[in-house]
């Protein structure tokens, strides 16, 4: 038990974030949207934790809450120091949070919009260092050169501007920026979605290599399973702000137990249905009138029964290492 506890890096408990839903010229508030709704999960030290779900389901919000770029409405984020007691990041003042900010970084989805075109590569990659203690120029440059070497970019490139680089190279710059503070945790938010298919594999391989070389703990966000299955140790499936299935990779890919996960599987071969799925998700997005007290997936589920309309299922263990939020998970036909 103790050994198991020791290897935890992060424990998220009941994390919640709502936004005001506004409309019309006067931005009148029409209600609230729960972007992240009572989400709990555990990330182990040195693992790649995959968070997957259609666009708009709350993945980016979850990542930004964990890094405390966004303030949650509720919940706890326990950070396990080694050694020492876990720290609740949600209870830290900005000042107390500062040392933790160096330990956790983000890799962004779009390497075109996430790199400031007016800054040189040196300024971009070095930016997280400037938020910490002051370091002499020579060391600053040496650290940037190291980080660029890490991602297989030539250090001489540090005086150039982002426009001189291809999409894949830009994402390498983004990765160098995330790694320069030697973080323990990296949130990679769809790091290959905006890239050409031909360079996606290169960036994924690089991330995997760096993760194992640096023993990084990584939360890897994706909107479909094709990427997740190659890289993640644990898979968490998110639907309209909630986790519907969390499982070890092998268990998940052998027997997905949630009807929504099954749908994500259907979309994988050739990724033909991806656009259709994204479209569908928007139509149903947080429309709680569909089934106010029951399962959020009710309207799209092909296994639904009367109980699902009345009662929302909670995430429960169906076997060791496999948690599912579905009343009828045993009905799934299998892939
Ligand atoms: N700043 C914001 N204001 C209002 N709504 C937001 C804001 N950011 C995100 N949302 C809403 O929260 C939900 C989750 O968004 P997001 O976390 O970006 O999803 P994902 O990353 O899975 O695509 C979406 O419905 C989105 O429209
Ligand atoms: Mg996102």
Textual characterization of the structure:
With 335 residues, the chain is of the alpha/beta class. The protein has one domain: P-loop containing nucleotide triphosphate hydrolases (Rossmann fold, 3-Layer(aba) Sandwich). The protein is 34% helix and 24% strand. Mean pLDDT is 88; it is low at 1-6 and 270-289. The structure holds adenosine-5'-diphosphate and magnesium ion. Adenosine-5'-diphosphate binds next to strand 2 and helix 2. Magnesium ion (MG) binds at residues 59-60, 189.
What's the quick description here?
This protein is α/β, with parallel strands linked by helices and 335 residues long. The protein contains twelve helices and twelve strands.
């Amino acid at each position: 038990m103790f050994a198991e506890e020791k290897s935890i890096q992060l424990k998220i408990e009941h994390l919640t974030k709502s936004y005001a839903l506004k409309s019309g010229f006067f931005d009148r508030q029409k209600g609230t949207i729960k972007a992240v709704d009572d989400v709990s999960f555990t990330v182990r030290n040195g693992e790649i934790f995959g968070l997957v779900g259609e666009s708009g389901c709350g993945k980016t919000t979850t990542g930004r809450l964990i890094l405390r770029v966004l303030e949650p409405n509720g919940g706890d984020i326990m950070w396990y120091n080694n050694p020492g007691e876990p720290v609740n990041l949600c209870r830290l003042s900005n000042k107390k949070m500062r040392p933790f900010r160096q330990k956790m970084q983000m890799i962004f989805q779009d390497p075109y919009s996430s790199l400031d075109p007016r800054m040189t590569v040196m300024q971009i990659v070095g930016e997280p260092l400037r938020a910490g203690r002051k370091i002499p120029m020579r060391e600053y440059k040496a650290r940037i050169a190291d980080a660029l070497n890490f991602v297989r970019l030539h250090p001489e490139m540090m005086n150039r501007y982002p426009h001189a680089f291809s999409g894949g190279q830009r994402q390498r710059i983004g990765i160098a920026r995330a790694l320069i503070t030697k973080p323990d945790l990296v949130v990679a938010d769809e790091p290959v979605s905006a890239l050409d298919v031909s360079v996606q594999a290169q960036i994924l391989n690089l991330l995997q290599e760096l993760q194992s070389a640096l023993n990084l703990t990584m939360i890897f966000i994706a909107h479909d399973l094709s990427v997740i299955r190659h890289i993640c140790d644990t898979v968490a499936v998110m639907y309209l702000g909630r986790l519907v299935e969390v499982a070890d990779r092998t268990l998940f890919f052998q027997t997905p137990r949630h009807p929504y996960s099954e749908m994500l599987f259907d979309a994988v071969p050739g990724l033909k249905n991806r656009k259709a799925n994204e479209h569908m998700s928007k139509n149903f997005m947080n429309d709680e009138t569909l089934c106010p007290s029951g399962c959020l997936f009710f309207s799209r589920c092909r296994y639904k029964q009367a109980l699902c309309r009345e009662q929302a299922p909670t995430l429960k263990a169906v076997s060791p290492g496999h948690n599912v939020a579905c009343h009828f998970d045993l009905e799934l036909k299998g892939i």
